[in-house]
Write a structure and sequence with these properties.
The structure is a homodimer of 463-residue chains.
Chain A lengths: L23 E14 L2 E8 L2 E7 L5 H7 L7 E10 L14 E12 L17 H6 L1 H4 L3 H23 L3 E2 L5 E2 L11 E4 L2 E5 L4 H11 L1 E9 L12 E10 L4 H22 L1 H6 L13 E3 H12 L11 H15 L3 E5 L12 E2 L2 E5 L1 E6 L2 E8 L4 H10 L8 H8 L5 E7 H8 L13 E2 L2 E2 L1 E2 H11 L1
Parallel strand pairs in A: 3-5, 6-10, 12-13
Antiparallel strand pairs in A: 1-2, 1-4, 2-3, 4-5, 7-9, 8-9, 10-11, 11-18, 13-16, 14-15, 16-17, 17-18, 19-20, 20-21
Chain lengths: 463, 463
Amino acid sequence: MITGMKNIKTRVLSSETPNHVGEEIMLQGFIHSRRDHGKLIFIDLRDRTGITQIIFNPQASESAHKTASDIRPEYVVSIKGLVKNRPEKLVNEKIASGTVEIEAKEVEILSKAESLPFDMGGEELNLELPTLLDHRSLTLRHEKVKKIFEIQAALIEEFRNASKELDCIEVVVPTIAAGATEGGAEVFSIDYFGHNAFLTQSPQLYKQIMVSVFERVFLIAKAYRAEPSVTTRHLTESTQLDVEIAFIKGFDELLDALEFVGTQMIKNVSEKYPEVLKEFGVDKPLIPIKIPRLTLREAQEIISKRTNRDLSKEMDLNPEDEREISEWAKIEHKSDFITITHFPTKKRAFYTMPDPENPEYSLSYDLLFKGLEMMSGAQRINNYEDLELAMKRKDVNPDNFGLYMQAFKYGMPPEGGFSFGLERLTMKLLELANVREASLFPRDMERIDERFSKTEEKTIQEK
Amino acid sequence: MITGMKNIKTRVLSSETPNHVGEEIMLQGFIHSRRDHGKLIFIDLRDRTGITQIIFNPQASESAHKTASDIRPEYVVSIKGLVKNRPEKLVNEKIASGTVEIEAKEVEILSKAESLPFDMGGEELNLELPTLLDHRSLTLRHEKVKKIFEIQAALIEEFRNASKELDCIEVVVPTIAAGATEGGAEVFSIDYFGHNAFLTQSPQLYKQIMVSVFERVFLIAKAYRAEPSVTTRHLTESTQLDVEIAFIKGFDELLDALEFVGTQMIKNVSEKYPEVLKEFGVDKPLIPIKIPRLTLREAQEIISKRTNRDLSKEMDLNPEDEREISEWAKIEHKSDFITITHFPTKKRAFYTMPDPENPEYSLSYDLLFKGLEMMSGAQRINNYEDLELAMKRKDVNPDNFGLYMQAFKYGMPPEGGFSFGLERLTMKLLELANVREASLFPRDMERIDERFSKTEEKTIQEK
């Protein structure tokens, strides 16, 4: 029966094993867990399609059994063996290969692993955030952690699909800029062949230029913020999903577009991965046909009534306010989304269009999802002179934005757009506690992969 | 007949006009060109779907005719008018709206434009590269320039499709790193809250980590190279299309995969946009069923025979060699592609797997397309100790690559991958003379949007 095993060269994936009952096959993957029952050794082998149970019985193969007694979690192995149906009462319905088990005949170690610093075999990883991130290359392998990034990939995909439905074309814009993009947040500066340069705080100015070319664009871009603050919602390097559309009929078309893209992403991903949402203990998102829309002032009045706090002098919603108004939307409109419009002009970036009916407020908006702002945007000023004036009011020098101003100099249609924060969106959809959990390799003040304190300790030791 | 025109609020796109003959519609777009025939004024209006001819006849509307006599190219306008069939001999088959023309009744200027610095109306723009880039926000609007980036968007799309066919999942990796990615090229350094950081030269190390999580990944990422050289093929900020796959059967599986992705992109885009290739004077790419594969040494022997040059001491192909061997592939194999393998181990990055049969050469490859390297990659070292040794040989300190080494410490399957340069690919597919033409906003030693010399003049003038 063993004759010819060496010649099996095609890997069978875990999920395919039930189609090979009675056959000898080769499986490859990581040791997920090992249970030593004296004579019998059971191994859960993990590949990209799931887990397969392998039985090492010395009567089937003494050498394989011997190797199996030495291997540990995360070893990478190639296993040849016989696919057998499990007895009915041992069928595991939770996994795709749950009707079968493999009787191992040969095992080859492809890569060894050190002893794990913590147990990776449980359904939950239960680590403190610094430990989770200090061991990121390991913890990302945990099934539940992995699922966060399967959801993230799906969100990107649905973002692209929704943008294409809006007739947008994808563009690639730069991250190195000569002028700082907007006011407000601090920027990271680069030494660029002896010249000053910056990492863009957003792809904003470039996507605006691009609507004068393609009318409707989308892009996936990095945004860099050097704000020296540590919160559960901020990363220094984050990913933006951006849309910009021109020849808009008016402000309402922008609101329709942003709500379309926002809800399509959440709706489609939730429907495609109900089991992941369930695993994260998340209810199906509430998405009514019409997302509630309030101006900032209307939202503040509602919050004031609910909390007896006076917000009449506040220029923005703070995180507590965002949670409060989202709670209202959930109760009153059965919606996990709410759109807030008309933020004060002076609190928004220079390119934001003031409301012609009341220029103190702007044609701007935030989309809140489950209590958190996960999208922001506005109609833009598209007249050259108005833009120049708005820049000067904010102490921004138009001379530092040559190509941007050029686009307006040669005619710019009425336009606007919006930008989703990918990591925030992932965080809120799965109700994670910290945005760092929604970034493969999160960057913040204290860490680039490794904590700086740790790196510095190392340097000191070297000296 | 004019009654009710004000109430038309829905924009009709240029390509849809033939469906509205006899109706009054609203069109919006940019003035592409204007021809003043005394009494009649003809305007070509441009929107994202194409060009529409508008006729301004004072007998149809005196006020519209008056406005039309003032408007210039790149003005943004909203025009209401009657759709009429053109006389048969005036039908323009080159454009989607070529069977109709619009008799203007009303025109509203949405945004004005300065006089253009050069003619934008011709089929070719015919500008020197510096002029093309100094006016980038304007020149990108030229129909032929625009098409470069329609092709680029299509290449990205086909890259994603091909990667998904390989069962890869999309990942988002960082661009700010604490250690420089590889040896060789210079890096841009960032002040990161007082710590040293760099812009990644490639997403390489992170995509390798990610195959220990997902087995097969793809990504679209920025790559930064601070090489102080100005060539027609290099940008300081470029876009990479990357694939990395684990549990490979061997080197050949990698070659199959890279040739699959490379040819799928070029083939599908060429078949979807034959008219664009024609406009750029490009023949349909030659893609045989089997892409020719040569080792570097084999390629050098062929080149030596063809040119009588001695290459036996050369460690790589220079641009002239690349053109020569591509010429050979075209003649001998009717192929615009050729895969070159087995570059010297010491010329490749530390993570490259040496060929076990002759460790002086490595399991590496370049894919050439029409005489230019547009993809590079290799099988990787996946054993921790071997990797550590390889790093030390190249004077790379493993301590600076904490999370990367961690992935290998906990078991790494046999794996490899490859990376396409998006701008180079776009350049070669359309046979552009310079890679800068294939980047919306190219960055190089001399320019971030505006030329530094220009910026500095400005600063001096300000003083």
